[in-house]
Amino acid sequence: MPTVYLALALAAIQASDAAARSAAVGAARSWARNGDPVEAKRVAQESLQHRVDGPEVTAIDLACAPTACTWPQGVASATVTLSVSLPIVPALPGVPALTSVSATADYPVARFGRDGATR
Residue 38's domain is classified under what CATH number? Predict the structure, then answer.
């Protein structure tokens, strides 16, 4: 029985990790291409909606380097953190019911910046 539980728990964590990575890539790409943080977060949320047993989104953080995402060759970064409930946990005393999974993705801004002008 412990082996079955371990397999189920690892499968839930791995599936959530893949979902977090996918959401982070989508948000970073959207953030780099159009610079709208609301749209980037919507893209991340939308990619997670298609999961049947969807994990709870804890945070979606966006950042740009070196300064703003409109600068040529800047890098847009998105970090998605999910809260994952482990299977069969309420039946096991002393085992945490939730774990956290986080993924970060970077996406380059176009060579000439989003608006096409060099700076």
Answer: 3.30.1300
Tokens 């380097």 correspond to 65
- Following DSSP, what letter does each residue of 34-77 receive, concatenated? H--HHHHHHHHHHHHHT-TTPPEEEEEEEEEESS-TTSTT-EEE
| Contact in structure between 71 and 109 (CB atoms under 8 Å) | yes
Task: Answer whether residue 64 is part of any domain.
Answer: yes
Residue type for 15, please?
A
Question: Residue 90's pLDDT is what?
Answer: 62
Quick check: is 116 in a domain?
A: no
Indicate the pTM of the whole model: 0.79
User: How many folded domains does the chain comprise?
Assistant: 1
